[in-house]
Amino acid sequence: MDFVAIDFETANTNRSSVCSIGLVVVKNGKVTDEYYQLIKPNDMYFDPLCVRIHGITPEDVKNAPSFNEAWKDISNLLEGSLVIAHNASFDMSVLRHSLDECNIDYPSFSYNCTVNVSKKTWLGLHSYSLNVVAEHLQIKFKHHHALEDAQVAAQVYLEACKFNNVTSHKELIEKIEVGQGTIYANGYTPARANKKSNKSKRGSVKMS
Q: What does the entry give for GO biological process (predicted)?
């Protein structure tokens, strides 16, 4: 099973204020590459609440590359891939808003949300936040560190496949009935908790 897990942290509530990116590449069910980068956002306001969550400050990113610069390193990893994220609606919104701000064309890829997958796999958890799902699976990590969150999202997805006794993404979404999302030039379709027909959304939709 091949996919890329991704996670973003933001400086504030502006979805284009990326301050870190974590990315994990999985090939044949094994991690083959990882990427972590602090990002200097165009909007350098760091909301104190966000700083308390992820611990990243303006001082940490003063010499970091911009999103535009970092995108050159990761775009080829996402193009044409299956992308996994926990609470994917947030991460995909961050990606779209950041690309819009830089006037960069969207890549084309399908994606799935491990929140949706977890809800259909491990029933009855009191929450499906990443730390709760990780605790259920006995995975220890530093929550809200972009690379560690991406690592855990990848593990959660692999564990869900194992739990559901499937060996492919297609088998998983059919068995647990979740709908994958897609991003493509000028539009996207969201990932759904229940598998059904998705309506495409054209253009850049601001979801802040």
A: DNA replication
Contact 191, 179 (CB under 8 A): yes
Sign of dihedral through CA atoms 49, 74, 97, 89? negative
**13 SS3 class:** coil
pLDDT digits (tens, 9 = 90+) for 48-69: 999 999 999 999 999 999 999 9
CA 2 – CA 38 distance, rounded (Å)? 25
Angle between helices 169-176 and 146-163 (to 10 degrees): 70
User: Who contacts 56 (Cβ-Cβ below 8 Å, separation ≥6)?
Assistant: 9, 11, 19, 20, 38, 46
Please return the burial class of 117, using the count of CB atoms within 10 Å of its CB with bins 0-12, 13-18 and 19+: buried
Question: Is this model's pTM higher than 0.70 or not?
Answer: yes
Closest CA to 189 of 100, 113, 137: 113
User: Nearest Cα to 189, choosing from 57, 88, 99?
Assistant: 88
3-state DSSP: the chain helix, strand, coil percent, rounded to 5? 40, 25, 40
Domains along the sequence of the chain with CATH: 3-189 (3.30.420.10)
